[in-house]
Amino acid sequence: MPARVYVETSVISYLAARPSRDLITAARQQLTHEWWRLRRPQFEVYISQLVLDEAAAGDPEAAAGRVAILEGLPLLDVTPAAVSLARRLLEVAGMPPGVGADALHIATAACHGMDYLLTWNSTHIANAEYRPPIERACRAQGYEAPVLCTPDELMGGGGES
Question: pLDDT tens, 135-147?
Fold first, then answer.
């Protein structure tokens, strides 16, 4: 059975954006395209209504491109349990006010048993300092936290150590 991946909105934004002249952004865009083309077929990929809502916001033309990419992807419900867990994550992880959506992405993925949460948001999601308290908070609520990672971290090693 393939691993299950919750794709957070930042990945879709990099995938849909016009090529950037900024070297770091351009590299992330390239990695995102490679992951989507080469690795995505090896996973069960999911999103939530929160991802759809975030992707649909902003410039109408850009939003239409992001939403088109999401068509046909299975949708996870943002449950009351996920909302409760998100509140707990904000408290326990010491995340700053105003990042409730980031906590809700993590909580939704955890409540639905996702193996991975794929994101380019390393400020509040794929952040090594937040990872331990996020994992503890999820376990305390009876959930296993997904692996919080960027597309380059989920490209696959393919070799033995």
Answer: 999 999 999 999 9
